[in-house]
Design a protein that fits this description.
Elements: H1 8-25, H2 32-39, H3 43-49, H4 53-68, H5 77-92, H6 95-109, H7 111-138, H8 147-164, H9 171-185
Helix pairs in contact: 1-2, 1-4, 2-3, 4-6, 4-7, 5-7, 5-9, 6-7, 7-8, 8-9
Amino acid sequence: MTGRPRDPAVDDAIRQAALSLITEQGYRGVSMEGIAARSGVSKQAVYRRYPSKGEVILDVLAVYARTRLPTPDTGDLREDLLALLEATFAGQRGVPGALNQALAAEALQDPAFAERVSRELIAARRQAVRQILTRARERGQLAHPDDDLLVDLVFGPMWYALLFAPGRLTDAYAAALADAVIAVGTHAG
């Protein structure tokens, strides 16, 4: 017996409750009990879906990334990188940035959770950049053969800034970073 299928409306209510509470109280002020109360879902139903508040936040961010962050295809490497970075940085300047900071803190405490964050959130964003790089290589705009290095150049500075200097996550920084990735990417390595 497999039980009842999960109700997407319940998942949405839990995610919305978590997002609202974090916006109002910050990550530390949120509890699973608070999420249950705000969502109108029983605490048991919340825990069946998510064993910890870190898991709720991971799901909130994964849905946000899937639905609100672009994988641009303008026909130009710089424009694609710039659009991706500006949208990503704009999110990081808001609640998603605070959520990513919280996920990083949780991941440092739990290697298994870190693996889930990497697999369920970070891998998809890295793949989006790989798609941009592949298209640029096909157009002859990219010579560097190591996509992982170039992806690291896209996201490494973002994570550093997010954790230690969030004020740097501006459109100007996005443009400078896109230009730096292109400078490295146009050389064969």
